[in-house]
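Narrative of accomplishments. A recurring question from our advisory board has been how the design workflow behaves on a single, concrete structure rather than in aggregate. To address it, we present the structure tokens for one chain from the evaluation set, followed by the sequence designed for it. No filtering or post-editing was applied between the two.
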């Protein structure tokens, strides 16, 4: 068990010995009292950091992945959770260009197991100025159905954001958001090469107003849907923005079948 009372940084460009770092949380607990920063740009050098969670309970006040600073080289950060838990008291920023970064900043959040519980808002790309957002590249990947993912505030994405849904069976982990969901960027659908999709399969990808308040909404659409890495055995992929039930549903339709009208 590790407890850090202030900030914890994994991969900071200002640290000569730790600007490219990997931290594995395997069992036990990692508790960070303030910000958990994964991959942070330095004043003259980029930073790269990775946190791998396997069976540990990780918590922080706020988590930021791939956060730019004044470095022209930007930053790259990644979190992968396969089991255990990841909890924030406030926000989660997946790629943040910072206030003055001239480099490109990448964030990768990979979820295939365990539980994710975000205390307030999840940003798939933190929304700063248009120029900074153009250098901010976030990717959120949800693989299979063995995880849970809850956002207690709002979910939003910038235009450079990608949400990857890796289909691995007849069910899929849905991102359940208590507040509003604002869609943007690209939805990339992939299959795992083992499960064979069939006509009539459908998966909830993201749900707004999951707490049932009634006033929260599903807002916007994806700018692009990419199925180039998804098998298409005699059918086609369909996407439904179900505004009545405030969720995005992916389905596979057999040839000649209409699922969504």
């Amino acid at each position: 068990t590790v407890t850090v009372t202030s900030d914890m940084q994994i991969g900071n460009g200002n640290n000569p010995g730790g600007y490219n770092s990997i931290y594995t949380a395997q069992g036990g607990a990692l508790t960070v009292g303030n910000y958990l920063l994964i991959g942070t740009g330095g004043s003259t050098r980029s930073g790269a950091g990775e946190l791998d969670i396997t069976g540990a309970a990780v918590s922080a006040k706020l988590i930021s992945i791939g956060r730019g600073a004044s470095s022209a080289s930007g930053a790259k950060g990644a979190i992968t959770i396969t089991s255990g838990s990841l909890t924030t008291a406030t926000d989660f920023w997946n790629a943040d260009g910072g206030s003055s970064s001239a480099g490109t900043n990448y964030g990768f959040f990979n979820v295939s197991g365990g539980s994710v519980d975000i205390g307030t808002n999840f940003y798939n790309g933190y929304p700063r100025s248009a120029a900074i957002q153009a250098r901010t590249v976030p990717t959120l990947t949800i693989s299979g159905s063995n995880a849970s993912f809850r956002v207690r505030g709002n979910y939003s994405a910038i235009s450079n954001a990608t949400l990857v849904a890796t289909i691995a069976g007849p069910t899929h982990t849905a991102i359940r958001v208590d507040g509003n969901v604002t869609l943007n960027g690209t939805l990339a659908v992939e299959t795992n090469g083992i499960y064979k999709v069939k006509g009539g399969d459908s998966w909830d990808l993201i749900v707004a107003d999951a707490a049932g308040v009634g006033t929260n909404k599903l807002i916007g659409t994806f700018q692009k849907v990419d199925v180039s890495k998804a098998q298409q055995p005699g059918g086609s992929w369909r996407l439904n923005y179900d505004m009545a039930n405030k969720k995005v549903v992916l389905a596979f339709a057999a040839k000649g079948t209409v699922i969504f009208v």
